[in-house]
Amino acid sequence: MIRLRPTLRRALPTLDWLLNHVVSGIPLASLRMSAYAWGGVAFEDHRSGVIMLGSEVYAPGQLRIGRGSAIGRHCVLDARGGITIGRDVNISSHARLQTAKHLIDDPDFAHEFSPIVLADRVWVAEGAFVLGGVTVGEGAVVAAGAVVTADVEPYSVVAGVPARKIRERSRELRYQLEWRPDWS
Questions:
Q1: Residue 162: is the preceding peptide bond cis (ω within 30°)?
Q2: Using CA atoms, how far apart are residues 58 and 65, in angstroms rounded to an integer?
Q3: Fewer Cβ atoms within 10 Å of its own Cβ: the N or the C terminal residue of the chain?
Q4: Which domains does the chain have, with CATH numbers?
Q5: What is the rounded CA–CA span in Å between residue 135 and residue 153?
Q6: What are the CB-based long-range contacts (under 8 Å, 24+) for 69-76?
Q7: What residues contact residue 152 under an 8 Å CB cut-off, 6+ apart?
Q8: Which DSSP string do the residues of 119-184 spell out, in sequence order?
Q9: Which tens digit of pLDDT belongs to each residue from 56-71?
Q10: In this predicted model, what pLDDT tens digit does every residue of 150-183 receive, in sequence order?
Q11: Contact 91, 68 (CB under 8 A)
């Protein structure tokens, strides 16, 4: 019986697998958010905001999400290096937050992890990619398809590959994202 324990342990699905193959497909948002919280995601309030269907979460214990934040469909949140998402943040569908990278000149192809911080009222648009070690300041916007490799100043709008500042955003933001669909 003792020999079976390691084998059995390897045969059981990991928490990441359960979150990404079972929880991410729960059609009722309130149940899905409760399951993510059970799985280790630290929500300021799991009853506000949403992680939409089909998104992937890696290292849920390293993911913190503020009140009212919405994460679109088919996003990837690789939190192995730590991800902090502020309040009223909108991460549009197909965006990717990637905290891990390989060291290309390392003879052993080693990897390292660096945190990502998205301050309050940040908008990461469709298909954008935010790399580890980046802080996106309050109210900033990352345009669709942008690749963010360096910090973004508060209330800046960045676009391109690599992302560059293209203009300022209004500092008079008052909105609170209270949107949560029942079946998405």
A1: yes
A2: 14
A3: N
A4: 11-164 (2.160.10.10)
A5: 8
A6: 69/177, 70/177, 70/179, 70/180, 72/126, 73/184, 75/51
A7: 134, 135, 136, 137, 140, 142, 158, 163, 165
A8: -TT-EE-TT-EEETT-EEPTT-EE-TT-EE-S-B-TTEEEETTTTEEEEE--S----------S--
A9: 999 999 999 999 999 9
A10: 999 999 999 999 999 999 999 999 999 887 777 6
A11: no
* ∠ CA 179-116-55, rounded to 5°: 45
Residue 33 phi/psi, 5° resolution?
-65, -40
C-alpha distance from residue 24 to each of 39, 50, 63, 74 (Å): 12, 11, 15, 9
Known catalytic residues? 102
pTM for the full predicted model: 0.91
- Rounded CA-CA distance 83/105 in Å is 26
Share in percent of the chain as helix, strand, coil (round to 5) = 15, 30, 55
| Angstrom distance (rounded) from CA 86 to CA 126 | 18
